[in-house]
Amino acid sequence: MHRVIVVADGYAYAGRTYRSLSEIARLIAGSRWNGPRFFGLRGKAPNVG
Questions:
Q1: Which pLDDT belongs to residue 42?
Q2: Residue 37, number of CB atoms within 10 A of its CB
Q3: Beta-bridge partners for 18
Q4: Is residue 16 classed as helix, strand or coil in its secondary structure?
Q5: 47: which of 8, 9, 25, 37 lies 20 to 30 Å off by Cα?
Q6: Rounded to 5 degrees, what are φ and ψ at 29?
Q7: pTM summary value
């Protein structure tokens, strides 16, 4: 389980403050991720086609 807290100047995770959820998602996953999608705050892209 990972806990991210919204703070005045960004997001707090593991004792540090980050500007975006994407920075934290990249740290956890080890690759580029859309932060809101990684944390389940955004739905999947619509199925087109």
A1: 78
A2: 15
A3: 11
A4: strand
A5: 25
A6: -85, -25
A7: 0.80
**Contact residues for 44 (Cβ-Cβ < 8 A; gap 6+):** none
Closest of 14, 8, 31 to residue 22, by C-alpha = 31
The pLDDT of residue 45: 55
Phi and psi, residue 28, nearest 5°:
-70, -50
Pick from 41, 40, 38: nearest CA to 27: 38
Distance CA 41, CA 39 (A): 6
As given in the structure block, the two tokens for residue 25 are 């998602």
Task: Please give the average pLDDT of every successive group of 10 residues along the chain, which has 49 residues.
Answer: 95 97 95 91 64
Residue with tokens 């934290």: 24
| Domain spans in the chain, listed from the N-terminal domain onward | 5-38
